[in-house]
Design brief:
Elements (H helix, E strand, L loop, with lengths): L4 H34 L17 E10 L2 E8 L2 H8 L3 E3 L2 E3 L3 E5 L18 E5 L4 E5 L13 E9 L12 E5 L2
Antiparallel strand pairs: 1-2, 1-9, 2-8, 3-9, 4-5, 5-7, 6-7, 6-8
Length: 177
């Protein structure tokens, strides 16, 4: 099989995730077990920190899988407009590093005229080095040295509780009229 930049990135991500899991999983499981002992079962998840994106447009996009639906208000920048121009799409999502749900687009998006910034939980972003979309849900885990290459595409308005559902099957992505 010929290796393309996309398959190379996927292989890199897969190998990195496997190595990280092998190192971090035993400690994480112990911390999780300890946290479950002291955290009441009725504890609510931390609030979404989605930051307002300057120049937020009126365009909204639906990410749907099964009965789950996530609605995103799209930012007003060249990269997000290029993303919307590709719709409708069907994408597959995977978890990356216990901080974001990522998917690869059929082609790279334009980045000229768009600026990167630190993502917040609830942000839909375009990661320039790998050319992937990502929904951040644990932005505190990110490597801040990449923030200038994280371009905001939008912010979740509703449905952030369905982020885990993105991994359960094909996700239909369409502009809401």
């Amino acid at each position: 099989m010929e290796q393309t930049p996309r398959t190379g990135r996927r292989q890199f991500v897969t190998q990195g995730a496997a190595a990280l899991a092998a190192v971090a999983l035993p400690g994480a499981l112990a911390r999780t077990a300890a946290a479950q002992e002291v955290t009441p079962a009725t504890a609510t998840p931390p609030p979404r920190e989605a930051s307002p994106v300057p120049g937020m447009g009126a365009t909204r996009v639906r990410f749907a899988v099964g009965d789950a639906e996530i609605i995103v208000r799209i930012a007003d920048n060249p990269t997000s407009r290029d993303f919307v121009s590709m719709l409708p799409l069907t994408l597959e999502f995977d978890d990356f590093n216990a901080m974001e749900k990522i998917s690869y687009l059929p082609r790279e998006l334009t980045t000229e005229g768009s600026t990167g910034r630190a993502p917040a939980n609830g942000d839909l972003i375009y990661f320039v080095p790998w050319g992937n979309l990502g929904f951040f849900y644990n932005a505190a885990r990110r490597d801040a040295s990449y923030d200038d290459r994280v371009i905001p595409i939008g912010t979740i308005e509703t449905g952030d509780e369905f982020l885990d559902e993105l991994e359960t099957g094909p996700v239909r992505v369409e502009r809401i009229p």
